[in-house]
Amino acid sequence: MSARTYRLARLGAEIGVPIAIVAGWQLWAANAHSVKFPRPTTIAVEFRKLWLFADFDKHVVPSLERIGLGFSIAVLLGIGLGVPLGLSLWARKAAMPHIEVWRAMPPPALLPISIVLLHSIGNTQKVAFIGFFCLFPVLLNTIDGVRGVDPTLLETARSYGISGFARIRYVVLPAALPQIFAGMRTSMALAVITMVLSEYFSSTSGVGYVLLISKNTFQLGPMWAAIVLIGLLGYLANAVFLLVERRVLAWHRGWRATAA
Fold first, then answer.
1. Got the DSSP string for 209-232?
2. How confident is the prediction along the chain (260 residues), in pLDDT tens digits per residue?
3. Distance (Å, rounded) from C-alpha 256 to C-alpha 37?
């Protein structure tokens, strides 16, 4: 199979499978007349009414801002803390027990305390909540990426007089970047999940809030429309991230191809 045929087959599967699922759902719902599972066409109408016009600025934009801010804070803190922890054995030994304890906490368990500590259910609480749980994949992957840097690279840099921050910038970070991006991709998905969770339990705006109100008032059409939007946000966030990753790590793919 040629590379072009493979790409076309993969694209066809990526598009065709969701279409087949939606078509099957539509046929089943048309005959089942289930209140809990409305037709996809009904959900699409609700989606257009809610998200494309009426409530986009009120609910979608705040959710996107919270995702972006929380994810950005997690990336900056994760890399900023992960590099020195990866370079220092003693700092790593001191920090890892605390990291393992906090990263094992389920998000719902810390949601009430985040409201109490920050004295609000506003944006600050939600961004901090999202950033906290998105921190750990980036942090742990940064630590592992820095620890896995080839010692030969470090010795070569040292022999050329490259030390301190310059060594981190030009040797350590580029070598660890593929693993850091793997952690960032996991954190991107976590950002969407924790955004919904924070808005579901402590908010007056956002996609999670609309999901809660729809559930409590038994408006199943808007509820399904919110679920579809959450899935689309996750899919689009991942797609954008992959485009950025492909551009930033183009040198890495070229190096692997040459090595192979």
1. HHHHHHHHTT-HHHHHHHHHHHHH
2. 566 777 777 777 778 788 888 888 888 888 877 778 888 888 888 888 777 766 777 888 889 999 999 999 999 999 999 999 998 889 999 999 999 998 888 888 888 888 877 767 778 888 999 999 999 999 999 999 999 888 888 788 888 777 778 888 888 888 899 999 999 999 999 999 999 988 888 777 888 888 888 888 888 888 888 888 899 899 999 999 999 988 888 876 655 545 44
3. 47
For 41-46, which contacts have Cβ atoms below 8 Å and span 24 or more sequence positions?
A: 42/221, 43/221, 43/224, 43/225, 43/228, 45/221, 46/221, 46/222, 46/224, 46/225
pTM of the model: 0.86
User: In whole angstroms, what is the distance from residue 187 CA to residue 79 CA?
Assistant: 13
Note the helical H segments in 104-170: 107-118, 123-147, 151-159, 165-167
By the 8 A CB rule, do 50 and 210 touch? Answer: yes
What distance in Å separates the CA atoms of residue 86 and residue 132, rounded to the nearest whole number?
20
Q: Judging by beta carbons within 10 Å of its beta carbon (0-12, 13-18, 19+), is residue 35 exposed, middle or buried?
A: exposed
